[in-house]
Amino acid sequence: MVTLAQQAVTQRIQGVGMTSHRTRGRMIDRLQEQGITNSRVLKTMRNIPRHIFVDEALASRSYEDTALPIGYNQTISQPYIVARMTELLLEHDDGPSKVLEIGTGSGYQTAILSQLVDTLYSVERIAALLKKAKDNLWDLHFKNVKYQHNDGGWGWPEFASYDGILVAAAPDEIPETLLQQLNIGGVMIIPIGQKRKQKLHKITRTIEGYDDQVLDSVSFVPFLTGRS
Ligand code: SAH
To answer: Is the Cβ–Cβ distance between 81 and 105 less than 8 Å?
Structure first.
């Protein structure tokens, strides 16, 4: 029997009007116009309801190409950036199967990654955000994600090494600890730099060392130390 609570969850996920599947389709069209080509990324983003990851009061804006506040001075990343980072991460040779995400935030990027990799490890330093993200992924029945409430500057050594690492907050410099947790052939997508001067980097671990490609100018919240 379906309970009223379950019905409410299903209705929330389905959305209506500005949060409907159709509105999401327009977001996908825009991503393609902006140059996103990976069909697996586009298909996954078409299926995942971004509106459940933002506050109800902002839900009608959830398919605009903009970052939105999620509380605690943090933001859900702009859809284009989420698509771009995911696409870059998937350029790994065989497609990454074991991935570490730093900065779970709302859990939107987590939800997308979880559908494209075998196992996802996601670390967030703000407990309240992590709890909300977990609840949303649970409602979506996405169960291949392990979560940790910690300072992601430590990575997650217990399960290292990883085929891919995606970092959603910007440190001033590339964190050495995270580099060490990459597999040979593994790829890390990370914004580096101070406010308004950040660049997205794609770092590939090779047998000899690390190959660092500097890509787009981006704007992320800062990578902070400690937990809260
Ligand atoms: N992809 C997320 C982005 C959230 S914003 C989304 O779309 O919702 C970046 C997140 O990184 C914030 O939740 C912030 O708390 C977290 N963060 C910043 N520094 C961190 C660190 N050292 N370890 C773990 N999480 C961190």
So the answer is: no
pTM for the structure as a whole:
0.96
- Give residue 198's domain range: 69-218
End-to-end CA distance of the chain: 40
Q: Cα torsion for 222, 200, 135, 121, to the nearest 10°?
A: -100
Residue 110 lies in a domain: yes
Q: What is the CATH number of the domain that holds 175?
A: 3.40.50.150
Question: What is the chain's Cα-based Rg?
Answer: 17
Q: How many domains does the chain have?
A: 1
Reported as a single tens digit per residue, the pLDDT across 68-101 is 999 999 999 999 999 999 999 998 666 789 999 9
Half-sphere exposure of 117 (CA within 13 A, CB side): 31
Buried b (16+ CB within 10 A) or exposed e, 186-204: bbbbbbbbeeeebebbbbb
- The verdict on whether 20 is a catalytic residue reads no
Q: Write down the catalytic residue from 77, 106, 114, 122.
A: 77
Q: What is the 3-state secondary structure (H, E, C) of 60-81?
A: HHCCCCCCEEEECCEEECCHHH
122 inside domain: yes
Distance from the alpha carbon of residue 152 to the mean position of ligand 1, in angstroms: 9
Atom of ligand 1 nearest to the CA of 152: 23
Q: Yes or no: say if 144 and 166 are a contact pair by the CB < 8 Å rule.
A: no
